[in-house]
Amino acid sequence: MSKKNNPSVLQLDGDIVKILTVKKNKSDISVIKALEVKTGRLSEVYQKTEKEEVSLLFPRELSVIRLLEVLNENKESIPAAVSAEIEDGLPFAKESVSWDYEILGKKNNKTNVLFAATSKDSIKVYAKDILSAGMELEGIIPTSIALYEAFMLSKSYTKEAVLILEQGKDRVDIIVIENELLIVSRGFKTNEKTPDIYENIKQTLDSVGRGNTSVKKIIVSSSCGKEAELAENIKKITEMKVEILKLPAALEKELEKAGVSVEGWNLLFGTALVALGLSKFNIDLSRNTLQKTEKMSAIRLVKRVSYWTVSFMLLLSVGLNMVNGCKRKEVDNLRTELSTLSVLSGKHWSQTVQQIFKAVPDRLFLSEFNIDNKGDIILRGNAEKRQDITVFLDNLNKIRGFSAQLGYANDIQAGNKQVVQFQMKILQKYNTVKK
């Protein structure tokens, strides 16, 4: 996103539209305008802002956000990794992808890359009222990024591991930050079909705990004015320190001057920092499309073809195993062929396939099966509930010689259905064989 002198940022929160126009001063930012109107009066927002373009705060549950680790092999590694994310496992057609990524830094010969994507159709549906009012979308910022920036701006900032929760009128964001690194990002609608806020907090804490991240405190924010009630309830279920996310006093005074309540503007100030170019992140989901993705190298293409073949053989073997009257010999032959394809870096995974699929619980589906250059297995898939992923992980770790780790588990809105998209890594402990 290009830096703007006086950007306007917009948030749809239930039936309320909030719009904030700010400007950058020498050492801080100040508020030019802050407005709240009903959704049906968007044309009034357009007239009052005197602007045709706005940056839209976009729901996390309608997008995909992943933290990638890319080996620093050559300059093509990062575009190839991003291309692979676009090609594999997204809950929308690759032809409709809008995406962006940010390089966060290097560590231990690896580059950390934050990748985000959504579909053009999701943008059009979500922003239909804005577009029909005559506004143009200058930028599309995921809510998780805005929440991260609001935390960095707030009085609660710390480098310790923290869980931050933002409650809107009909949706919730949860992120986990450690040492300024965004390690977990979740977003979900609040209705009878999804687990409640407190269940999602428990699941998130359990997930990061498995990855050896110990959350020190929980920080809450709410556009509904329920921060105190939310904080008190969270204390009861977690017995952790809980505090309320507060903007700097100078910005609260700016909101008071603009004639609006100081509560409920945290995400918009985070979005404004991105629009001003003051953010650590520069992720704008309207900036890139699939056509701008660099072509993968010939070597990567060959690897991908082999991975697709492996995945196809896996799924086919499972299918045959479930068909009534299937001969055991046919299944064994397929597994033999799969084992031949799956020999990388001198490590043989002949019996692994059977053990993995025996561990898969109901309502969990594997969509990708890769083997990296170290011989470790990378699994991706979708589950209806996070509990299914926990069961799968526990089942794998009960297998002798296996060490399974959860990479991520993100809530994704796929059409009218919400699923949990996950990635796991399986390492196998090899025993020395005496000849």
Describe the structure.
There is one protein chain. This protein has 435 residues and is of the alpha+beta class. The chain has three domains: 1-142 and 248-294, Nucleotidyltransferase, domain 5 (2-Layer Sandwich), CATH 3.30.420.380; 156-245, Nucleotidyltransferase, domain 5, CATH 3.30.420.40; 298-428, General secretion pathway protein M, EpsM (Gyrase A, domain 2, 2-Layer Sandwich). The chain is 34% helix and 33% strand. It contains 13 helices and 18 strands. The strands form four sheets. The chain has a five-stranded mixed β-sheet, with helices on both faces. It has a five-stranded mixed β-sheet with strand order 11-10-9-12-13, sandwiched between helices. The chain has a four-stranded antiparallel β-sheet with strand order 5-7-6-14. Residues 293-303, 317-349 and 430-435 have low confidence and may be disordered.
What is the residue-mean pLDDT, rounded to a whole number? 78
The secondary structure category is alpha+beta
How do the strands line up in the largest sheet?
Answer: 3-2-1-4-8
Number of strands: 18
Major sheet: size, sense and barrel closure? 5 strands, mixed
CA-CA gap between termini: 61 Å
Q: Which fold name is given in CATH as the topology of the largest domain? A: Nucleotidyltransferase, domain 5
| Residue windows where pLDDT falls under 50 for at least 5 positions | 293-303, 317-349, 430-435
Instruction: State the CATH class of the largest domain.
Output: Alpha Beta
